[in-house]
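Write out structure tokens for Outer membrane protein with beta-barrel domain.
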Amino acid sequence: MKITSTKLIAATVLAMFFVNNSAKAQSLPESKLKFGIGLDGILPVGNLTNTANFGLGLTPRLQYGVSENVAVTFTTGIYHFFTKEIRIPSGLPGQYNTMENKLDLIPVKAGVKSFVSSNVYFSGEIGVALQVDNGGGGSQFIASPGVGYAGDKWDLGVRYENLSKTGSNSAGFIGLRLAYGFGL
């Protein structure tokens, strides 16, 4: 069964609004700011597996509590992918030239965290990924549903991040983010 990213994002948004509206307090009080630095493990899926094995990310996030169980987020940072070597036919029978493919992206995302209990949340983010390697200049749309557990200082979340570009196939990855945060 193939689930499109649009359906996955829609299901996450619905879950954020309809699951457990009676959530108690969260790790970020209403009208308060929190800043966190995250380390991301990245596992490519779909078309991204053709060029990358895995990746690491460093993602600062600013979070603002808008109600008792909802926070808005702004996330940026860098994703570095450890890419596969690409073999290109040289024109001679049985001989190839190799090329190292580089892929580094800067995500710029805004999102929402909806707490369904005091520490468990659903999240959704959208934004853009700016390509900074190979001369840069490229950008891709990001849509990212996720779930996680946030305590007073630590936040552990998992998400699917869909990367799509006009006129090309979309790619994506599963990200695991461990972050340390503090109030501002």
